[in-house]
Amino acid sequence: MNERTARNISSLRTRHSTNSDVETGVQSIPQSSDLTNRDVHNISRLCSNCCNKFTKFFSFDGNNNARALALIKIPEASLWVASSVYLSTAIIERAYADAGCMSEIPEGETEIPECHNRVFGIKPSSILSLFVMVLGITCAILMPLVGALLDASNRRRLVGGLTALGVTILTFAQSFISKDNWFIVFILQLVSFVLLTVNSCVALAYLPELTQDKHTLARYNTVIMIFNSVAVVLFLIVMTIITTILHTDDSIQSARIALLATFSLQLCAYGISWTKLFGARQAAHSSAAAIDVGQAETKAKSNHNIIHESMQSLKRTLVQAFKQRSEVRWFLLFRATSQPVIIALTAATLSYANDQIQVSSRDVGIMSLIVLAFAVPGNKLSLTFMERFNPLTSLKICTLLWATLGPLLALIVSKPGHEMRLFLLAMFWGVLFGWKDPADKTILCSLVPHGIEAEMSGLYIFAGQILMWVSEKCAVPYYSN
User: Fold this and answer.
1) Neighbours of 80 (CB within 10 A)
2) What residues have CB less than 8 Å from 50, skipping those under 6 apart?
3) Model confidence, pTM
4) What are phi and psi of 107, to 5 degrees?
5) CA-wise closest residue to 65 among 145, 154, 160
6) CA torsion sign, 373 to 258 to 190 to 308?
7) Domain 65-480 is of which CATH architecture?
């Protein structure tokens, strides 16, 4: 009886407490407050985890060489945009003007009338083609030799710093382009890109040395390419905003602004990378090691030993690559054929969009920006496939998807008014652009033996440049127009 009474009293107290809470609302507020605090805590913890993952993804685990490789992508990307979009346009316009040719499509026509006049002995329509051909052949011949010399000496960082300084000085000099000196600037642009390719060869030699862990190396390659993709898009957007605000309709004025902006980025990024981040490397070849400890009799003999050893090492590398190591041979052949095919396909796609479905220049610009922007998720997708499978499988899948781009374009975009379809296809196109490079360079790193990193970097650039003139037969006529 006492227990039953106690239970009844307890039940009455509980009911009274509940009714009081409902009437006054005093107790319900702390409960709601407790729930809100818990949600805020969970959200803050989720944000903190996301920030930690983001920071870790871009931190390179404290690897200064990896940080430097990512940092130099910023001035490289800005110089690419400044030269290919702004400076080349100004040079071509001046070439047409000085030759007495029309540089714009006349009203009622679909293309620029053919002009047989010459300026400095060159047809205006061949200026860009000549530039690409000379640059490609020069770099293809020089880079393996440069790589071999770098491996035979302990001056890798010095060469990288000097070539970066040379590119920076030449960029500043090109910013003084005018109607009178455009051809001199054209020559400076060619020299600048040769030095930039040498600098890229030096930097690429650091890539296989970043880490022995293949998953970490794949992540480093991906982040480095993300820096490049983001820098291209941001620089293009910023330059578009600046030229719009300043109302710079003159191509020469726009080129000056772009080159000066690139010059400022080069001073900061190259200065930090080559003086603070990149590490020194010892010579990999025996004769160079003997020189470093003072065993050579004379400086002339020392230099002769370095050159001789470099050429012998390059010869051995070529013999091994094309006779003994089939995986290296096929990779370089793939590199040599895939690069011009991609550029030719790009030019054919743009030409199809311009001629067949008659998209406006504004729509072509939007499509190009979409392609560049979607290279960033392409970089990340490349990493996902490399982690899920391996770099080779990732590259194979990417190559197969590249082969579908042309047929998809013909099936989906077939007549005027399909601009939105073209923009959707441009997203896929951009993903493929971003997908290829991280997998490509990760495979390169896995194939490079220790001690010939710069040689293999030179051969990698050689393979990418040697057949580039073939693609320019398709690409240059469109870009000239």
Assistant:
1) 17
2) none
3) 0.80
4) -65, 130
5) 160
6) negative
7) Up-down Bundle (1.20)
